[in-house]
């Protein structure tokens, strides 16, 4: 009998080598892509510890010391702390209202069959095609009639209404993937519809609730256009509107500008770090059905 030569180890080594090369290439691309975001953020934070003269002369050098004068100026002269509070109140309230009303609406759409359900879905998708600029005039008139212009509600209500459709569709898609056996088991244990919602569906749907909350918070927190129109008074001015004013009044103070941008980004990073583990799971599983 002639000896046989096995080529399987070589094939496996070749496959392993190709796999490693492709993995290295992917990581190189992802690293380069990440640096386009990480480096500008580092550049802004680094320049926030410099005076304006140093930023102009050598903005790419590492700050030799942590000079906090820009941060002191931001809180003392510009009163950025008040704008912080305003933004967190309005954006946080919009997130809570969207999760409550959006979660209830998504539960109904995902687990109930009723006449006109497909039409309702079509209307929800159609509203996503309406540009926000087209709704400014009617929304402003409604706010004037209700006396909520230049109040917290003047931004909370438009942001809640504007983000509700997106949240409903995403959460309904996720809830529709929950097995019916859990629903039947809850019925057997004596739960009514309301108990089933907050004891079964809400805990299971935490990933999609986290995904919706971060997107709603970002859209509300960064919405400069609505802030300039609906809440343009200093006592309710959010931080993005203050940042716009700083750029016009203190545009030559580059150190102060870098500090204001840094302080604007910090809350977004904190919120993302706390719920980042839920975001990918919520978006991918919520896209399975709906």
Automatic annotation (TrEMBL):
It is a multi-pass membrane protein. This is ABC transporter permease protein YurM. It holds the Pfam family BPD_transp_1. Keywords: Cell membrane, Membrane, Transmembrane, Transmembrane helix, Transport. The gene is yurM. The keyword RNA-binding does not apply. It is found in: Cell membrane. Signal peptide: none annotated. The keyword Transport applies. PROSITE patterns: ABC_TM1. Residues 84-275 form the ABC transmembrane type-1 domain. Belongs to the binding-protein-dependent transport system permease family. The chain crosses the membrane at residues 21-45, 88-110, 122-140, 152-175, 196-221, 254-275.
């Amino acid at each position: 009998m002639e000896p046989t030569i096995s080529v399987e180890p070589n094939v496996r080594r070749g496959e392993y080598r190709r796999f490693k090369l492709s993995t290295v290439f992917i990581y190189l691309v992802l690293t380069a892509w990440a640096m386009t975001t990480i480096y500008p953020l580092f550049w802004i934070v680094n320049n926030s510890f410099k005076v304006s003269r140093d930023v102009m002369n050598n903005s790419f050098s590492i700050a030799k010391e942590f000079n906090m004068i820009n941060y002191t100026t931001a809180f003392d002269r510009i009163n950025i702390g008040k704008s912080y509070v305003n933004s967190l109140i309005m954006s946080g309230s919009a997130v809570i209202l969207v999760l409550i009303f959006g979660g209830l609406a998504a539960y109904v759409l995902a687990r109930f069959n009723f006449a006109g359900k497909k039409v309702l879905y079509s209307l929800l998708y159609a509203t996503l095609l309406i540009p926000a600029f087209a709704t400014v005039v009617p929304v402003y008139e409604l706010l004037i009639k209700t006396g909520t212009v230049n109040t917290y509600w003047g931004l909370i209500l438009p942001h809640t209404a504007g983000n509700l459709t997106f949240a409903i569709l995403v959460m309904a898609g996720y809830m529709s993937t929950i097995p019916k056996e859990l629903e039947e088991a809850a019925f057997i244990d004596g739960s009514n519809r309301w108990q089933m919602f907050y004891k079964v569906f809400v805990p299971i749907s935490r990933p999609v609730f986290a995904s919706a909350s971060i997107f709603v918070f970002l859209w509300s927190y960064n919405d400069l256009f609505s802030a300039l129109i609906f809440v343009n008074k200093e006592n309710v001015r959010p931080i993005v509107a203050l940042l716009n004013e700083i750029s016009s009044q203190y545009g030559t103070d580059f150190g102060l500008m870098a500090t204001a941008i840094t302080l604007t980004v910090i809350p977004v990073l904190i919120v993302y770090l706390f719920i980042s583990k839920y975001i990918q799971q919520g978006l991918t599983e919520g896209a399975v059905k709906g």
